[in-house]
Amino acid sequence: MKWKQQINEMKAYQPGKPMDEVKKEFGLEEVVKLASNENPYGFSPKVKSFLASDFSNHAIYPDGYAQDLRTAVANHLNVRESQLLFGNGSDDLIAILTRALLYSGVNTVMATPSFSQYRHNAEIEGAEVREVPLRDGKHDLAAMLEAIDENTSVVWVCNPNNPTGTIVGDEELQNFLKKVPAEVLVVLDEAYFEYVGSPVFKDTLSYVTEYPNVIILRTFSKAYGLASFRVGYGIAQEEVIAKLDPVRAPFNNTILSQKVAAVALADQAFIDECKEKNETGKKQYVQFCEKHELKYYPSETNFILFEVKADSDVVFKEMMKRGFIIRSGNALGVPGYIRVTIGTEEQNDKFLSLLEEVLTEQGVFA
Ligand code: PMP
């Protein structure tokens, strides 16, 4: 068959190991997954009661325009409904953007390491990928600017960045946006927006008003705890959304996912509570790293990337045997590090005491 050449060498997305597989492999009764940055507190109790009482007709197609959810998000953000684009997770939005803007002959600029799907989708479309190494774990916006030329179509800024959890602050971003050519789309992927606490991360929605070439991506998969429902959204000026909308699959969110996302959005107290608990949990990891003199990146998210001074794959495997699934830095382009989703206080305590055991075994703590 006449496959695109680049597809031949491609691997499917490697998600965190499924829990059931790990239970079986290691004969474990309980496994905790701290690998995919989901919310350890699940979703709002309001969603739970909604789910128990909803009798939607799933035999019919959903509203392709997601009108009710659109109204709810537009009101929440104080933007116009026409400024929103909904996706089957923000993964879908990344694919839509790529499909609309990238092809053989143009290039796209992104940081490395960053979220793998920017590169993956760009490769499928045959575009040239220009990766700019992070500097001290942060996007090197000056170098990214230099990488832009007349053939650049899209620039990706993962803010906060996955896998480092770091942010680019307001001033840096503002300077960058001023210099990016107007015909280059800048994607600000804010999948972890709700967790950011830094005062230098200002309300980025104003960039959408100020710059016609900016789109922000957000998701219900992380702080809202709805990863399985697959709802993400983009916010941009109307003209950008109007161009992207025809590229979207007609019914890319289900009836239930649209309803559930709107219910979750209405419970901001739950989000605030999760953010607060996440901050406390993050401190457990920071204290561990400081006690053991392990380098870590300052995280503005619900995960943390830190040094283990050992082979990350070995640490990954040893922790898995003990019932914790995390991400090895080797798989993320940061060897010698692991990325751990911040869990509940109890999970973090258990994880860290087992990690201490593993790192002692590995001879890290003499
Ligand atoms: N962007 C970033 C930075 C992510 O970390 C993720 C999830 N791993 C996504 C986008 C995709 O999330 P979703 O499709 O669930 O919205």
Number of domains: 2
Tally of DSSP β-strands:
12
Unreliable segments (pLDDT under 50, ≥5 consecutive)? none
The number of helical runs is 15
Mean pLDDT over the full residue set: 96
What is the CA-atom radius of gyration, in angstroms?
Answer: 21 Å
What characteristic shape results from the CA principal axes?
Answer: globular
Just give the CATH class of the largest domain.
Alpha Beta
**What portion of the residues fall into strands of 2 or more residues?**
5-15%
| Heteromolecules bound | 4'-deoxy-4'-aminopyridoxal-5'-phosphate
Please identify, by name, the CATH architecture of the largest domain: 3-Layer(aba) Sandwich
The CATH homology group name of the largest domain: Type I PLP-dependent aspartate aminotransferase-like (Major domain)
* Sheet with the most strands, sense and barrel status: 7 strands, mixed
What class would the helix/strand composition place it in? Answer: alpha/beta
- The end-to-end distance, rounded to whole angstroms, is 57 Å
Which fold name is given in CATH as the topology of the largest domain? Aspartate Aminotransferase, domain 2
Task: Report the helical percentage.
Answer: 40-55%
The SSE order reads HHEHHEHEHEHEHEHEEHHHEHEEHEH
Order of strands, main sheet, comes to 2-8-7-6-5-3-4
